[in-house]
Specification:
alpha+beta, Double Stranded RNA Binding Domain, 4-stranded mixed sheet, two-stranded antiparallel ribbon, 1 helix, 6 strands
Length: about 90
């Protein structure tokens, strides 16, 4: 069974104005099977620990190189296009 990885660029946090660590590329493994509800507690869980694994790389080439070296099937998710809303302070009074 081949593991599938998702490679994406970390988006900017919507709650903060800074863009720290948004240049990093993240490699996450896709879930192999759906999580099961525990009959006693009702919590969702499973035996696949790769869902908890998240690796960070400085460039896209480093992330894809790791996936190819480890024999992982992967797909790259493009970062959303950055939209600038240019607005002047005087626009508040129109």
């Amino acid at each position: 069974m081949t593991k599938t990885a998702r490679i994406y660029q970390k988006p900017k946090n919507a709650m903060q104005s800074g863009r720290a660590r948004t240049d990093r590329w993240i490699v996450e493994f896709e879930p192999v099977r759906q999580q099961q509800a525990d009959p006693l507690t009702g919590w969702a869980g499973g035996d696949a620990t790769t869902n908890q694994l998240r690796m960070s790389f400085p460039t896209l080439e480093a992330a894809t190189g790791y996936a190819e070296r480890e024999g992982l099937a992967f797909h790259v998710v493009a970062a959303p296009e950055r939209k600038l809303k240019l607005q002047a302070y005087a626009d508040n009074f129109r």
